Amino acid sequence: MAVTYAGAGVDIEAGDAAVELMKQSVAASHGNTVVAGAGAFAGMVDASVLLKYRHPLLATSTDGVGTKIAIAQALDIHDTIGQDLVGMVVDDIAVVGARPLLMTDYIACGHVKPARIADIVRGIAQACAAVECPLVGGETAEHPGVMGADDYDIAGAATGVVEADEMLGAQRVKVGDVLIGLAASGLHSNGYSLVRAIIADQGWDLERPVPEFGRTLGEELLEPTRLYSRMCLQMAKETEVHAFSHITGGGLGANLARVLPAGTVGVADRGAWPVPPVFTLLGAAGQVPGDDLEQTLNMGVGMVVAAPASSTDAIRRVAKAAGCDIFVLGGVRADDAAELPEGRRISGTKGVDGGAALLTGEYRSA
Question: How many angstroms from the chain centroid is the CA of residue 6?
Answer without folding.
Answer: 37
